[in-house]
Every structure is written in structure tokens, then in C-alpha cells.
Amino acid sequence: MRKCNLLFLVMACMGLICPVHATFVTLETPNTRLILDATEGQQLAMLYYGDKSATPDDISNQQSAISNQPSAAYPAFGDIDMIHLPAIQVQHADGDLSLNLRVKSVEQLSTFNFQLSTFTLADTRQPLTVRVCYKAWRNVDIIETWTEIEHQEKQPVTLKRFDSGYLHIGEGDNVWLTHLHGDWAAEAVVTHEPLTRGLKVIRNTDGSRNAHLDAPELMLSLDGAPSENSGRVIGAALCWNGNFELRLNAPNNGGVHLYAGIDPQSSEYVLAPKRVFTTPHLALTYSTEGMGGVSRTFHRWARSCGYLHDGNATRDVLLNSWEGIYFDITEQRIIDMMDDIAAFGGELFVMDDGWFGDKYPRNDDSSSLGDWVVDTRKLPNGLQALTEAAKARHIKFGIWIEPEAVNTVSELYEQHPDWALQVPGRELKLGRGGTQLVLDMTNPKVQDFVVNMVDELLSNNPYISYIKWDANASIQNYGHALTAQRSNSPKGGLTSNSAAVNNLYIDYHLGLLNVLQRIRAKYPDIVIQNCASGGGRANYGLMPYFDEFWVSDNNDALQRVYIQWGTSYFFPSNAMAQHIGGSPYQMTGRVVPIKFRCDVAMSGRLGIELQPKHMTDEERLQCTIALADYKALCPIIQLGNLYRLVSPYNDQSQMTNVKLPETQSVAALMYVTDDKREAVVFAYSLTNFMKQAPRRIRFAGLDPEKVYTLEEKNIRVQYNHAIGAWDKGEPCALHGKQFTGAYLMSVGLLLPLSTEYTQDFPSRIFYLK
Ligand code: DGJ
Question: What are 701-720's pLDDT values in tens digits?
């Protein structure tokens, strides 16, 4: 915290500028700075967010020369002019809708890892305070912000809007927005658009997961159309799994105002006196290295600051049973699949849906959720026989559950129909299988049921080392009637002493977080995959409790290039579960060679998801080579720094089919170790036409002075007529060649992506050392 400089005060006395008694607070990360004016008795003002070139003196001098009021750091309804939007709006018991928040105090706490600054703002009329908090990380360019709202009014106060954070971006002439929009099996479609004047709202109202349609992250490129490796870019990620709203307001008088928080629609929160409502965290970053710089910062933060469980660990290579056998689980099939993944050199087998149900066997998706007992018709010797079989094969064992759901055809529903979200007297809206409902995670009994179920599963089967936690239903029955009965309960709220349970959309997630915290407290080492019909829960609200997430239910390798590309904007590769699927692929019917399927899955956390019994000899050999090579490269791929080189979106002609692209359409990315001594490059050809000009690929992130030797990996297998079998293939001519980092980055390489192939979808992986 520092006072305005002496010069400023002297100038003020001389009448050059109006006297102010500003108290600037500067928050810093390694390369960024946020400057606030925290003058006591005034609005907390946001003056600057960017790199370290701006000092408080610069900002102060600039402020003095313009007539615009600085933006409030947490704009309140009733305290802002008509061109601004509020970040907070409340209704006091007497109907007063206003807040006039003024700085009361500032506290700063320094730890080895971060500096936490808390600005306490008090309303001028009512005993209501808002603590605006900023956590500036010392080792990574992320500032997290959130607020804590509390009051001592005589009656409850209704929170009508309560954003996690707000950011004022001073310039607004040519700002571009990048965000992800998608759907089930088509997640994370990247959209870049110029931000026009007016209001842009990005919102998701699914209820139980928030990343399938619009995702709660965005980037803002401040220097015009976004670039991967240059330009100033701000990144924002709301750490919340429920409904959210991101608003970008670009008023006529310039600038851009970013607001992010829980979606206020249907989310009014009644805050009792002396309770604290804590908003989810909003993570902000700023980079001068383009979108890639923002992505790398989010990845580093996720891994090293607790936003990805066990973030700095690599994940095992697995076989998942789902697309191989679906619900047709038998002991023999499962053991056969374990033999297969062990033979491929994998490390883990995961038994997916279909293993449970007593009175109602889980033979399809219309029954049994909630009945977490082994179906002994399918698995007569129980889970123990399977875990022993896994142990004997020196692989780990994982299992699928969907703990937050119940089918109306289940023993759980027969015993506890009231545990499902519903409104008494209204017809139930049923989800997957025509019978699926969401359990009421606001109910402490349901929370205990889920915790105990997971606890029993893990304590009775100590060899289970991995859980796939699925969530396949949106909230469709808005059971306020049930939650209202508990509205006087002392529990609930975003922190333990927060408001009573009173809003389904919020309290559902608080209940879920409570469950996850309890499970993690007892089982910190279990690997848990976050799955929601694919990537429906890829968000930083849940990832602190999960080691990875299932990127998409769509395993078509071509579409996966796009899905994984978009997902990588915000999430690190060791969190991204990517599986080699079958061909022709069941969703799209596309025939994709095994080499391409392996190469696409190998760029994240590698797995296999098909029936190995149906694989050809060629596929089996290619997979074995892929797994061996992947395991050697795994630390670089899963923990290295990502550089996206050529976007699959670049070639518009391929997207619209208007004309054949003259130049090959390619996607390429690479991972580089921190010391820049090693890297792995992935290149995929998305079009393969005769006489197409090859695409030159410029690498990134290397040391220009270093000399790198290229080694081709996962070399395509060949049929060896001499032995009458599939055999190892020959590497391309670049194998063993040396180049300087400078050459690779500024001139680049023409990769042999089509000429040596007679197969569609050529692809290459190179290890650089
Ligand atoms: C949806 C998941 O995304 C799939 O991977 C699979 O686990 C199914 N649920 C099982 O029902």
C-alpha cells in the first residue's frame, strides 16, 4: 500500500490538479499489476490491470488529466451512472434497492505463495459490508477475485445480483472476444468475434453442469483479431459448476467492462443477518504472449495452485469398457479387457456403467441408478474377483459411478422418492432413459448417502484406485418446495457460516462441494475423473476435487482435433482424458486409420475405449507402439508448456466446403519442457487431396540457440510380406535430423504429412531433444 507521491501533492497544492487523498494499492504477480484506489470513505476504484510497465505514479498522473471518474472496483446498484452495470444488487427489508459502498479498511496478508488483499466496503445507510478479495499468486500470473457479503440488518437481505468479480479494461476500440460454445458430443467450439458496442452476455442455465453449451471462461484480445503467440490478452475463468453469467459491456464512451458471477436469474439469495455469502472465485490473467500465453498461465495455475487435484502428477494410460461393451458386462468380458490393456502396456482398467443393480439390473440406461450394489448375475464373484484379477495383471482398477442421480426404476427411489429433486404436485420431468432424476444435493441426508456410498465402495475394495464420477442430467425439476422446508437450517452457503439453504441453483452446488470435500478428506489419493456426458463439467469450480475430466463422448478422432483444441484454451493436458476410439466410429460413421486415432488421443491423457477383441492385427500393433512411446513422452505431454501452432479452424474452405483448399489443412501443437531441452510435436492433416501444397509448420517455445534432434514417434506400422504380418514401420526422412531452435521457430519445417501415405488422415509425432 502506498500514498500518492509527493510531486502529486505539491502539484495539487499549486492548484494544478484537484487535491485528492488517494491511497493506491498495487497487487502484483510475476508479470502483471492491478492498481486500485482504496481511499477511505470513497468508492474502491479500479485504475489499472496489465503488465508492469504502468506505475501508480503513471496512473495517478493520467487520472488527473481526464475528467472520467475511475470505475468502481465492485460497482453497486444505486451507486453507478446509467452507462454502467452493477456487479452487486440487493434488496433491503424496507424495499431499499440501493448500495453505496465506501472503503472502510484494507487488509493484506502475505504468504509464501500469494498475497491476499481484502477491501472491506461498507454501505453508507445500512449495516451491510462487502469484502472484495484479491489473491495475487507469486509464481503465476493469476489474480483471483471474489466477494464476501455480510450484514447486520434487522431482517434478511435479498441478494439479487452478486458477481464474483469485475474488471475495467480501459481500451475498447478493437477488442476481440474468444469463448467456447458447444453441445453434447461437440464441446468447446472456439468462437472469435470483435466486441461491438453494447452488451454481450454469455450464460449457462443447465443447473447441474455448465460447460456443454456456453463455457464459463473467456479471453479478450486487446490488439485486434486474436493471435496465438503475440498481443495483449486478458483471460478469465469463473470457478463454478452452476449457472453463470459473463457480461461484457462496451459503452459508447469507450472501454470494456467485464462482469462474471453466478447467473442471477432464478438465483435470488436470502441472506440472514450475520451470515456470510461468499461468491465463487474468478481467475484473471493478462499476457503479452497472445492466447497461447493465457492458456499456459491457466495451465500452470491449475497444476500448481490447487485448481486441478494432484495437478503436477502424470495420469495413467487406461482402457475404459464403455464403448467396447456398453452395459454388456460379464466377469469374463471384464477380465478379457484387463488382459488386453495389460498386453498393450497400459496401466489401468476402468469398468464403466452397467455393473450394478440388484432388484433392477442395469442393462440399459432406464434403471438402477442409486442401487450401488454389484449385479451378481453379471459379476458372480463380485468386485473382489475383478480387483484381484487386475492385481495379478499388474494394472490398477477403476470403476464408474453416477452418484448424484437416481432412476425412478430403482430401489433407492422406492425407498426415498423425496430424495430426488421435484416439486410435489407437478409432473416429473424425466431425463436419460426416460426415468432419470437428479438427487437433491441440498439435502444433508442425500449428501451423507453419497459420501457413504463412495466410502463403502472404496473401503470394501481398497484396490480401487480410480473413480469415474458421471453426471448425465440437467436440473429439470425445480424443487424449491423441498428446499424451502429447510430454509431455516443453519447449514449451507458458500462457506460454513453462510446463509441458510434457500436457492436450489446455488445450494445444489454447495451440497456437491461439501460431498466432494468430505470424500477428498478421506481419499486424497484416489484418482477421480470428472465426467458429465463428456465435457459438461469442464470448469474450475469442480477441478480442485478431480484429477481429470472426460473431454467428450465423441471419440471421432477428426472432430476430437477441434474439441481438444478448444478445451486446451483453458485446461492443461494432464486433465484432458482422450481415448482411442473404434473405426468406423459409431457416432459419425467415419473411418479413421488407427495411426491418426492414436496420434490425436496421445496429445492429452491417453486412453483406449473400444472392444480390443474387434481390433485388427494392424490396430493392435499400432496401439502397442503408441502406448510404449506415449509412456516415455508422458511427462512432456502431460506437464509441458503447450504451444498451439496451426489451428484446425484456419482453413475456412474446409469448414464450408466451398472449394478445395489449395494448401493442406493442418492442425499442429507442441509441448515443451520448462528447460526447453525437450519437446513433442503433433501434426495432423485434416485434408488429403492430391497435389495439395504442403503446409509449413513453425514451431514455438524452443530455445533458439539449442540444436534439436528430431525423432519420429508412433511410427505407422507396415505390412511385412516377408513374414506375412504387420510389423514396425520406417520413420520419415526427418528422423535423426538436427535443426536449431531458431530455424524451427522462424523458418519452420515442411512435415511429410501426405506424400508418403496412401491413407487418409496422415499424422506425425516428433520428439525433439
Ligand atoms: C456418459 C459418459 O460420458 C460415458 O463416457 C459413459 O460413462 C456413459 N455416461 C455411461 O452411462
Answer: 999 999 999 999 999 999 99
Q: Say if CB 370 and CB 405 are below 8 A apart.
A: yes
d(CA 100, CA 102): 6
Q: Is 697 helix (H, G, I), strand (E, B) or coil?
A: strand
User: Is the distance from CB of 91 to CB of 158 less than 8 angstroms?
Assistant: yes
Secondary structure of the chain: what % helix, strand, coil (to 5)? 25, 30, 45
Q: At residue 11, does pLDDT exceed 80?
A: no
CA distances to 493, 565, 688 from 561, in Å: 40, 6, 16
Question: Residues 411-469: pLDDT tens digits?
Answer: 999 999 999 999 888 999 999 999 999 999 999 999 999 999 999 999 999 999 999 99
Per DSSP, the three-state class of 753 is coil
Distance 534 CA to ligand 1 centre (A): 7
Ligand 1 midpoint to CA 353 (Å): 7
Does 550 sit in the ligand 1 pocket, CB within 6 Å? Answer: yes
Dmax (CA) of the chain: 95
Nearest alpha carbon, ligand 1 atom 1: 533
Q: What is the distance in A from the centroid of ligand 1 to the CA of 720? A: 39
User: Which of 677, 681, 590 is closest to 642 using CA atoms?
Assistant: 681
Q: Which helix (H) or strand (E) holds 101?
A: strand 101-110
> Distance from the CA of 405 to the center of ligand 1, in angstroms?
13
Alpha-carbon dihedral angle through residues 438, 361, 364, 612, given to the nearest 10 degrees: 120
Using CA positions, which residue lies closest to atom 10 of ligand 1? 353
Q: State the Cα–Cα distance between residues 228 and 293, nearest whole angstrom.
A: 8
Give the pLDDT confidence score for residue 8 in this predicted structure. 37
Q: Is the pLDDT of residue 724 over 90?
A: yes
Q: How many CB atoms within 10 Å of residue 295?
A: 26
**CA–centroid distance, residue 533 to ligand 1 (Å):** 6
Residues 287-313: tens digit of each pLDDT: 999 999 999 999 999 999 999 999 999
CA 765 to chain centre: 26
Angstrom CA distances, 229 to 220, 371, 646, 728, stand at 14, 50, 11, 37
- pLDDT confidence bin for 688, thresholds 50/70/90: confident
What's the pLDDT at 484?
43
pLDDT at 481: 41
Is-contact 366 435, C-beta < 8 A? yes
And the C-alpha cell for 698? 513453425
Give, as one character, the DSSP assignment of residue 377: T
Q: Of 328, 320, 323, which is closest to residue 347 (Cα–Cα)? A: 320
Distance 623 CA to ligand 1 centre (A): 23
pLDDT value of position 652: 45
Peptide bond between residue 127 and the one before it cis (omega within 30 degrees of 0): no
Phi, psi (deg, nearest 5) at residue 133? -115, 140
For ligand 1, mutation pick of 368, 474, 550, 609 (most atoms within 8 Å of CB): 550
Place of cell 481511499: 39
Give the Cβ contact number of residue 257 at 10 Å: 22
Are residues 465 and 527 in contact, defined by beta-carbon separation less than 8 angstroms? Answer: yes
Count of CB atoms situated within 10 Å of the CB of 82: 6
Ligand 1 pocket, 470 CB below 6 A?
yes
